[in-house]
Amino acid sequence: MTLQEFFDFLSDNPIWILSYFLLVPLAAWVTNRLSGSRGLQNPWDVVYSVLVFMVAIPGLLAVAFNVYLFLFERRSIFQTNIITQLAPIVSFIATLVIIRKNVVLEHIPGFGKVSSLVVMIFAALGVMWVLDRTRIFFVALTFMPFQYVLLLFIGVLVFIRFSWKRLFK
Question: How many CB atoms lie within 10 A of CB 113?
Fold first, then answer.
C-alpha cells in the first residue's frame, strides 16, 4: 500500500478518521471536567499527555505534509483534502485549547518533546526548501561525498535547534 492509497482509503471511509479526530477533543473536555483542579496530578497528567500525543503526531505530520505539498509540489490550496489534511490540524489545535483551559501545557509530561519535534520538522523543511530553491543540493551532491552532505545537514539542524532553545529561553 502506498501513501496515496492510504489517504484514498481514509477519504473513502471518512467515518474512521472523523470519529478519531472528534473523540480526542471530546475526551480532553471530559478529562477537564473529571480532573477539576487536579490536572497535574497522577493519573490526570498521564491522561493529558496521551491525549496530546494522540493528536500531536498526526497533526504535526499533516502540517508538514501540507507544507511539503504547497512548497515543493506546488499543489493548489483548492485541492486540499479536508478529511486527511485539515481534520488532524483542527483536532490538534482544539485539543490543546481545551487542555490549556485546565492545565499549563508545559507541565504535561512529554510536551517539551512535542515542541522540539515541531522545531526539528520545520527546520528540516526550511533547510530542504532553501536547498531546493538555490539548487545547492545538486551542486553539493556533485562535488562532495554524500556522508559530508549528510553531516552538514545534521549540523545545520543541531545548530537551529540549539539556537531556537537559546532564543526562547
Answer: 13
